Amino acid sequence: MPEIPLFPLRIVMFPGGRFDLQIFERRYIDLIRHCLKSGSGFGICLLKGGEESLQGNTRQAIHRTGTYSKIVDWDQLENGLLGITAGGEVKFTIEDSWQADSGLLRANVEFSSADNISAQIIPLNDQFSGLVDLLQSLGNHPLVEQKNLLINYDNLWDLGWRLSELVPIEVEKKQQLLEIDDPWERMKIIEGIVAGLANET
């Protein structure tokens, strides 16, 4: 069973997604240096309790499903910190996790055979045309355009992942969407969420 380092954050990453991070803690600087040298990645998972940065003897509680990500870009920021862009690749489930001497969380994980950027394309039918239009409009937002996402608008996987990320809902709901294994079920729930948001306006 693969062992990977974890990066707990208050975000939910999906396969194919991108997220910018500022790196300032020693344990993560060392992790990023190792990843850049080796071409390896790390798991991004949602914090359930505790803070993103370790304070004193506080501990971090995490959700057990996350997304293995690799560094797709990096730079030194104007504030002197290391900035990276992480790209999501494959969903994983944590079997067991522990804190290493460095303070870094590590875990044995099982990678999803379906929820990954190499998944076989599932062509869309007209059933989700309204959600495709919604995703295209969200994708045209300047903040989203900056991410340079590669979106296949005729792939059910892409539609579910990107809407899960971009629709304005609480991170706990995004986590629930990530944990769903069936892409059709994920889309049905997204349909209900979008309908609910439309009724609020």
Write a brief structural summary.
The protein is globular. The protein is an alpha+beta fold.
Describe this protein's structure.
This protein is an alpha+beta fold. It folds into 2 domains: 3-116, LON domain-like (Archaeosine Trna-guanine Transglycosylase, Chain: A, domain 4, Roll), CATH 2.30.130; 126-200, Methane Monooxygenase Hydroxylase, Chain G, domain 1, CATH 1.20.58. The chain is built from 6 helices and 6 strands. The chain has helices spanning 26-38, 129-139, 142-145, 156-166, 171-179, 183-200; strands at residues 3-9, 18-23, 42-49, 61-76, 82-99, 105-116. Strands 1-3-4-5-6 form a 5-stranded mixed beta barrel. Strand 5 (82-99) and strand 6 (105-116) form a beta hairpin. The radius of gyration is 17 Å and the shape is globular. The termini are far apart. The mean pLDDT is 90.
Strand order of the largest sheet: 1-3-4-5-6
Radius of gyration: 17 Å
Taking the alpha carbons of the first and last residues, their distance comes to 47 Å
Provide mean pLDDT, rounded. Answer: 90
Strand percentage, roughly? Answer: 25-35%
Q: Would you give the CATH topology of the largest domain?
A: Archaeosine Trna-guanine Transglycosylase, Chain: A, domain 4
Note poorly predicted spans.
none
Features:
Methane Monooxygenase Hydroxylase, Chain G, domain 1, 6 helices, 201 residues, alpha+beta, Archaeosine Trna-guanine Transglycosylase, Chain: A, domain 4, 2 domains, 6 strands, 33% strand, globular, five-stranded mixed beta barrel
